[in-house]
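FORM 12-B: Structure-to-Sequence Request
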C-alpha cells in the first residue's frame, strides 16, 4: 500500500495508491528455472568494484569486497538493504560482517558449507555458484573479473553483478561466467548462467539463498538450497556438493510472494506542520503488516527511505526538512507473509 502525498509548506494534497513490501521467510520465495535464454554480459559496460577487504594474501583467490551501493533500496526477506558485498567465491551478501573472505575455511571464505551450516556462517547471502574460485584477468584480475551495473530508471532499476571468466587456484582451464540480478520494484532475484566451461577442475558448489541466521538443521524459513544441479528442486537441505556445471544460458529466478495488501481507508494527514518538520498521520488499515515504511521525494520520481515504524503505528514525526521545499511522501505497509 502506498500513500503518495505532496507537501508544499502548508499545502496538503493527497493520492492513494496500493503497493507492497513483503516476504518474512525464505520459504515464501518461489523458484523457477528457465533454459535457452540470452546471456548479456556487462564485461564491457560494468563497473569494477571500488575496494576489497583482502589485499595481502591471495587477493585474487579468496576475497570479499567492501560494501558497495546497490543503487536503490532492495527489500530482501522483509528487510531493506542499500549495500552489498561480493566474493570471488561466487556469492553476494547483505551482511555487516567485516570478514575479508581470506584463505581460510571460515564464514565468508572459500568453504561453501558455511552457506548452509550452523554457527557463524556466510549468511544473508545469495549464491549462484559458491565454491573455491579465483579471478583470472591479467594485470587487474579483480577489476576485469567481477563487475556490477545499475540499469533502468526508478522505480524499475536492476542491479547486475557478474563473475567473468572465473577459474580455480592453479588451474586456468575453467571459464565460469554468471550473474546475480536484483530487481527494485518486484524484489525478485535472478541467477543467470552464461558460458560455464568446467575444464579439468572439479567443483563441489552450493546454489541458493539464505537468511540472517541458520539453526543446526536449517528450517525452510532460513534456507533454500538447490538439491540437484540443473533442476528446480530447492529446499532447506544442506546441499554443498553439486558437481554438474549449471547449464549455459539458463536462469533461476527467486520471486517473493505477491500477497495483495489491504485497501487503505482514510487519508494521510498532517499536524504540527512547520517550515522544517511535520507529523504524518494515517489509519492503521492493515491487519497483516509488521510495520510501515516512510519515504519522501522532492521530484516525485526518486524516493528516499526515511524510516521504518513499529507494528500498528499510525504516525511519524518528520524533522530536519528543508524550508520552502516541495515534499512527496509515501507510507507503505510492510507485510507479514507466513
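FORM 12-B RESPONSE
SEQUENCE OUT:
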Amino acid at each position: 500500500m502506498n500513500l503518495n502525498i505532496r507537501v508544499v509548506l502548508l499545502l496538503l494534497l493527497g493520492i492513494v495508491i496500493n503497493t507492497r513490501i513483503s516476504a518474512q521467510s525464505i520459504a515464501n520465495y518461489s523458484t523457477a528455472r528457465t533454459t535457452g535464454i540470452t546471456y548479456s554480459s556487462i564485461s564491457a559496460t560494468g563497473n569494477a568494484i571500488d575496494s576489497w577487504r583482502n589485499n595481502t594474501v591471495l587477493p585474487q583467490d579468496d576475497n570479499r569486497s567492501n560494501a558497495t551501493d546497490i543503487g536503490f533500496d532492495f527489500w530482501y526477506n522483509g528487510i531493506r538493504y542499500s549495500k552489498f558485498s561480493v566474493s570471488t567465491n561466487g556469492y553476494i551478501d547483505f551482511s555487516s560482517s567485516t570478514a575479508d573472505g581470506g584463505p581460510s575455511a571460515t564464514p565468508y571464505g572459500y568453504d561453501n558449507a558455511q552457506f548452509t551450516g550452523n554457527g557463524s556462517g556466510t549468511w544473508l547471502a545469495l549464491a549462484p555458484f559458491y565454491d573455491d574460485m579465483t579471478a583470472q584477468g591479467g594485470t587487474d584480475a579483480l577489476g576485469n573479473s567481477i563487475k556490477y551495473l545499475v540499469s533502468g530508471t526508478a522505480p524499475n532499476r536492476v542491479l547486475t553483478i557478474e563473475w567473468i571468466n572465473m577459474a580455480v587456484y592453479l588451474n586456468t582451464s575453467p571459464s565460469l561466467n554468471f550473474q546475480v540480478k536484483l530487481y527494485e520494484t518486484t524484489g525478485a532475484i535472478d541467477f543467470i548462467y552464461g558460458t560455464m566451461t568446467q575444464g579439468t577442475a572439479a567443483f563441489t558448489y552450493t546454489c541458493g539463498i539464505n537468511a540472517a541466521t541458520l539453526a543446526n538443521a536449517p528450517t525452510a524459513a532460513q534456507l533454500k538450497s538447490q538439491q540437484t544441479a540443473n533442476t528446480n528442486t530447492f529446499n532447506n537441505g544442506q546441499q554443498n556438493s553439486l558437481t554438474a556445471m549449471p547449464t549455459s544460458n539458463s536462469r533461476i529466478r527467486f520471486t517473493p510472494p505477491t500477497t495483495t495488501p489491504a485497501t487503505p481507508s482514510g487519508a494521510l494527514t498532517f499536524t504540527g506542520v512547520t517550515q522544517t518538520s511535520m507529523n504524518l498521520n494515517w489509519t492503521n488499515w492493515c491487519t497483516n503488516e509488521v510495520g510501515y515504511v516512510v519515504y519522501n521525494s522532492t521530484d516525485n520520481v526518486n524516493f528516499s527511505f526515511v524510516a521504518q515504524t513499529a507494528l500498528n503505528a499510525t504516525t511519524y514525526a518528520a524533522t530536519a526538512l528543508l524550508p520552502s521545499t516541495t515534499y512527496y511522501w509515501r507510507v507503505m505497509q510492510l507485510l507479514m507473509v507466513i
